[in-house]
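INFO worker-7 received task bundle
INFO bundle size: 2
INFO processing item 0
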Amino acid sequence: MRTLKVKTGNGGSKFSSGWHTLEVVKAEYGDWNGTKYLDVWFKDYPDSINLRCYSKTGKDGEEFAIGRLFRFANAGIMEVAKSDGGEAIVKLNDDPKMLIGKSLNVFFYKDGDYYRILANTAPTVFENDLESFTEDDIRYWQGNAEKYYNDYVNKSRGSNDFVASDTTEGTTASAEVPF
């Protein structure tokens, strides 16, 4: 004879491929072989599933990947000014604690038996001193992340699991989004 504990409820799993809007509960920096990264964990998900965003530097020497994560989470923006060229100059507090309680759109994908979170995120709808993000903007950034997933992540895994851009339920915005 045996006894089983059976979870009952809606039967759905929070682990499913595609886009999810999640709240950050913990974030911390780390270093892997000399490359800085930011790990981010989310509400209602175990510590075994997190987003890892590696630092990337553009041709101008400015880090952009972790900065974009803060930007899309609407976190840490302290001051916005305009340069002589008309670009926005943002003073950003990149303390990981600034992310806690903020929301991001993250993309889950299956990697073998496990789910992973793509490092490329998309914003939620919000407005701040720097900019505002609409549903169209979100679809644009989701399409951008899906393209990255299809062109790089899937190819490197040798997978043919193609993600169609229509999973974002709309057309991708064609206008250039600054930053």
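INFO item 0 finished
INFO processing item 1
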Amino acid sequence: MDWKRIKSILIVALIAINALLGWTLYNERKIVELDQIDQDLIVDLLADKYVTIDKSIIDVNQDIENINLNSQVYDEEFVTSVFDNHNDYSDNRIVAQPIEFPQKGEVFYQASESVFLESTVLSDDEVINQAYKLLDELNISKEDVYLKDIGYTGTKIILEFGQKYNDRVIRDSYLTVIYNNSNLLSFRRVWYDVEGTGTREETFNSPEYALYDFVRIIYNKNPNRERALEIVDIQLVYQLNTDEEGTAVLEGEANIFYEITTSDGETYLVNAIAK
């Protein structure tokens, strides 16, 4: 038997296998962390902290694109003209005006109300539809918007919207509109132009790892907590870093996090990309 020849063949085979593995990982681009925590183990660990979870929501789709964000700005005359189109009072009891000192990156217009406003007569669906018409006039695509909440105070209806990109939430963004029937009273938002930059080769922490980190977070928050809690959602989201004052960052590359939502309405962020 020619051992020298066999040794050469084995060396060539190993080189080929390593090259194939490297090419596969390169094409995968985003590599799920191999050192995953067993799901049953993490469920037991959560239960020990009085937290329950449906295992089916742990399998998170990690196909997410890297993006750059740049805060949108509006011309004052343009926004005022849009407001004028959303006022059906015949007099000047509602006049749109920009707020001079909003938060950094924020657009904020508030109507001055000179007289008593009429009672609300429009249904939720009618108000939501006119809000989407407003967003269209402001060049905000309906594909990039989701309705977060709808509320009421007196004669006013408050709609809160969020921004998404390829169905992934951009946490820094918000848009709040307040109506009195068909009359727009307030428009306030931080919104971003989004530039997709493709998918880089990065190592993802597993969802199980994120849940393990979540256990650490809630324990540090309240070591003696015994109140029952349920994790109702876990998803990948975008967020820019915030400055020390917590105001909006105007531009930059968005970070990718796991967002864990609990039954008490709280959300927790865990880094999705291994450092």
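INFO item 1 finished
INFO post-check item 1: The helical segments are 3-28, 39-48, 76-84, 124-137, 207-221.
INFO post-check item 1: The CA atoms of residues 15 and 21 lie 10 Å apart.
INFO worker-7 idle
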